[in-house]
Amino acid sequence: MDMSEHDVPLVVIADDHPLFREALQRVVAEVFAGYGFCEVPDCAQALSLAQTDSRVELIFLDLNMPGMDGFGGLVALRNIVPSVPIIIVSASEDAATIRESITCGASGFMPKSLSKDDMVAAVRHVLEGGIYTPHIAVAGGVSKPLNSGDQKLAEGIAQLTHQQRVVLQLLVGGKSNKQIAYELSIVESTVKAHVSAILRKLRVHSRTQAVIRASKILDTLRQLA
User: Fold this and answer.
1) Is residue 179 assigned to a domain?
2) N- to C-terminal Cα separation, the chain
């Protein structure tokens, strides 16, 4: 584990492959002048660092390193540091994995096949508040990115906590606040608070608008799979 001085912001590189950690160090050096970095080889250490070090300002997360449990590690990290951008780095580039990563709260998905310059551009896009996704292969062999409208919807969904995403999915399924409270074993006032947060983050004024917008982005991402 390589640590910087204690008073500087920290970028976490969570990947079990030393060579790729070195590659990400070069990206960090170009984008984050004056930042420190910390390398961890498994999910448990990434979770521990996120819980104990308030300097963390960005996390690179390998989906396939030990302890990730599918997307469970991503969800756990997102719940611990809801405001810290998490960029998935993966050898996989299939649309289903990209879609699920964004749905689970990633701020971007960066294939390991990207060039250093493209990685730098991807990180800068995320730091500017965007959601980075590579061009995704769709039916007919055509490569197609999310359009700007869908990108903004994905950004809104990425800002939701895990519990808020669960509530949103139940809203899309037509559940009432009372039904959601029962299914999640929480009180109805908590559901209302989650719904209010969802409306604010999706920039809509009613639960109907939220359902329509969420259905649109989920359908779009599904079509890209």
Assistant:
1) yes
2) 36
E strand map for 7-104: 10-14, 36-40, 56-62, 86-90
The domain boundary residue, chosen from 144, 169, 203: 144
Instruction: Identify the residue whose tokens are 């259905």.
Output: 215
Determine the Cα–Cα distance for residues 124 and 115; give it in Å rounded to an integer. 14
As to burial, measured by CB atoms within 10 angstroms (0-12 exposed, 13-18 middle, 19+ buried), residue 106 is: buried
Cα distances from 53 to residues 56, 58, 123, 185, in angstroms, run: 6, 12, 21, 32
Nearest Cα residue to 93 out of 138, 158, 59: 138
Q: Are residues 140 and 159 part of one domain? A: no
Residues 29, 91, single domain; the answer is yes
What pLDDT, in 10s, does the model give residues 161-203?
Answer: 778 878 888 888 888 889 999 988 889 888 988 888 888 888 7
pTM of full prediction above 0.70: no
Phi, psi (5° rounding) for residue 169?
A: -60, -35
| 136 phi, psi to nearest 5 deg | -110, 135
CATH of the domain at 80: 3.40.50.2300
- Is the domain of 62 the same as that of 98? yes
Q: Domain of residue 116: give its range.
A: 10-144
